């Protein structure tokens, strides 16, 4: 049994029943709650004191008595108090309990990182002042809130009284302006139930705070939870894809790494990247779907040879597309095929903005990354089967 501990704002009536419903078909996970006094949201000192360390520490210690495997502060105060506030809180609680600790705000930021979100639609029940502070905090974290919907409320208990239909309209309105995703930033708003429907309408992920917190606490289990939106179903795989791309970037010293893969069950196809890691100042290629990737010379070469394509320059065939060279400035690359059964499901790309030799260590790093993607896919299939066991007839 994997046990999750959650610290809950005392006036919150949303996150516990919502979390229980999301886990209703997962029989190997239990969730345990401890409350701390929180009744009003504002930017004044009295409101800030509700999120002091001492009550959180007492709650964390009580959860530790239950032998939980991870603890989450299931509240979004870090979204206006600052990311460093939540990181310091996690460090303090982890040191006191010896248990991994996270928060709702950190979970939301990890979801944005896993999906490459830098333009966010924001949905909150808070006042204008709190909303603007959240936008500033997220801007400092590299995320621009390009659209926002707020209700002007301060009473935490009142947040849970907002009808789901109103929340859905807010999410839809916030999913404009070129947003890469929408985030419902409050754990006492019933946003989880509207996420899947809104995603189908908008064509972008919807990260509800309650959902994001549960997603982050379940990471070690590999569980994929259907029916509650993109993040709980595919977020673990997307996160591992992103981590692999980032590790490959570091190992090779390249300027950009990408993963393209066909996984219809996760809504992924090769004309858009499933993961991308960039050096500072390097232009993103993540959402450019202008090319038919399977018909590129380099990809056709991969399909035929099923081995690494290593190009120190682009003087010889197979030539990459003009757009890669002229729009994105790539001068050298390595490509590694991801093969599943008889099919080439996708490939990893390693880009350099200058001509360069790719050494043996670089090639080995790409092989390691390709193997890592295969392992992620294997693990995801195991997790899926564990949610839907086969019953012998």
| Strand line-up in the sheet with most strands | 10-9-13-12-11
Give the assembly state of these chains.
single chain
Main β-sheet, in a few words?
5 strands, antiparallel
Q: Give the uncertain stretches in residue-range form.
A: 387-393
Number of domains: 2
Characteristic terms for this protein:
MaiA/AMDase, Beta-Lactamase, GAF-like_dom_sf, single chain, Aspartate/glutamate racemase family protein, Rossmann fold, 5-stranded antiparallel beta sheet, GAF, 4-stranded parallel beta sheet, 15 helices, 393 residues, alpha/beta, disordered C terminus, 43% helix
Question: How would you portray this structure in words?
Answer:
The protein has about 400 residues and is α/β, with parallel strands linked by helices. It folds into two domains: about 1-230, Rossmann fold (3-Layer(aba) Sandwich); about 235-385, Beta-Lactamase. It is built from 15 helices and 13 strands. The strands form three sheets. Strands 10-9-13-12-11 form a five-stranded antiparallel β-sheet, with helices on both faces. Strand 5 (about 120-125), helix 7 (about 130-140) and strand 6 (about 145-150) form a beta-alpha-beta unit. Helix 6 crosses helix 12 (about 230-250). The longest helix has 28 residues, at about 360-385. It is elongated and about 65 Å long. The relative contact order is 0.10. Residues about 385-393 have low confidence and may be disordered.
């Amino acid at each position: 049994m994997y046990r999750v501990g959650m610290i809950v704002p005392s006036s919150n009536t949303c996150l516990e029943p919502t979390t229980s419903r999301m886990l209703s078909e997962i029989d190997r996970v239990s969730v345990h709650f401890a409350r701390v006094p929180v009744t009003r949201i504002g930017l004044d000192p009295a409101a800030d004191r509700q999120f002091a360390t001492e009550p959180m520490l007492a709650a964390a210690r009580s959860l530790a008595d239950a032998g939980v495997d991870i603890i989450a502060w299931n509240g979004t105060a870090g979204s206006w108090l600052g990311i460093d506030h939540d990181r310091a809180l996690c460090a303090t609680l982890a040191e006191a309990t010896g248990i991994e600790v996270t928060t709702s705000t950190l979970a939301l930021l990890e979801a944005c990182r896993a999906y490459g979100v830098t333009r966010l639609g924001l949905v909150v029940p808070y006042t204008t002042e709190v909303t603007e502070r959240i936008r500033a905090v997220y801007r400092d974290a590299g995320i621009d809130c390009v659209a926002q919907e707020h209700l002007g409320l301060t009473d935490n208990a009142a947040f849970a009284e907002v009808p789901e239909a109103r929340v859905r309209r807010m999410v839809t309105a916030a999913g404009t302006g070129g947003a890469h995703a929408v985030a419902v930033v409050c754990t006492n708003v019933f946003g989880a139930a509207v996420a899947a429907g809104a995603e189908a309408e908008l064509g972008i992920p919807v990260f509800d705070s309650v959902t994001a917190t549960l997603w982050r606490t379940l990471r070690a289990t590999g569980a994929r939870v259907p029916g509650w939106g993109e993040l709980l179903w595919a977020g673990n795989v997307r996160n591992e894809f992103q981590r692999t791309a980032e590790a490959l970037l570091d190992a090779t010293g390249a300027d950009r790494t990408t993963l393209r893969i066909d996984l219809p069950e996760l809504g992924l196809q090769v004309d858009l990247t499933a993961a991308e890691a960039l050096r500072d100042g390097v232009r993103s290629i993540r959402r450019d779907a202008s090319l038919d990737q399977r018909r590129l010379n380099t990809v056709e070469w991969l399909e035929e040879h099923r081995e690494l394509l290593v190009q120190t320059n682009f003087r010889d065939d197979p030539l990459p597309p003009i757009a890669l060279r002229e729009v994105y400035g790539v001068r050298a690359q390595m490509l590694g095929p991801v093969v599943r059964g008889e099919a080439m499901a996708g490939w990893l790309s390693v880009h350099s903005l200058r001509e360069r030799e790719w050494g043996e260590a670089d090639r080995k790093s790409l092989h390691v990354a390709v193997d890592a993607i295969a392992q992620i896919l294997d693990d995801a299939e195991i997790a899926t089967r564990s949610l839907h066991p086969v019953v012998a007839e």
